[in-house]
Amino acid sequence: MIKKPLINRQIRAAKLRLIDETGKQLGVVSFDEAARLAIERHLDLIQVTEKVDPPVCRLGDFGKYLYQEEKKNRGIKKQKGGEVKGIRLTFNISDHDLETRANQAKKFLEKGDLVRIELRLRGREKALQDFAKEKVSKFTNILNAITPIKIEKGLMKEPRGFSMIISKGVIQKKWPKLNQGNQF
Hints:
Number of helices: 4
Distance between the termini: 61 Å
Largest sheet: 4 strands, mixed
């Protein structure tokens, strides 16, 4: 829940730093003068921040101010991306299943998410760690052929297998070489 700012007579400070409805600073004024200006202009006196001395107040429509603040907070919540999505591989995964998982990882990367690739080892599979590393490298090669990737956190050994984190890579353009006569 958002704490509502103090308005009009709720403000208890004797001196205020005042901003008018256009955003122009009017300087430090007394509360009585700020209240008089608000009444003359048919606006509310809204305390923007109390963290400074004297507190900052603004002239404006209180309902419109609350709407703008709510809109700003909603915009912050909607920002997405950077989530970590997981792709789990198994020890005996087929090539076709690797391609399917690579396509799913591509969708995650295009949304701007990070992808955590996990390969779990169970029982005797733990003795064949080189084979498991080859599976993960094969998966990253397939995915790199589909879309460029950047390895954020390299292949790490964990108690139950291997994991790595990747993100979307940047496609680098190759610039044509200049002829000898066209030097700057």
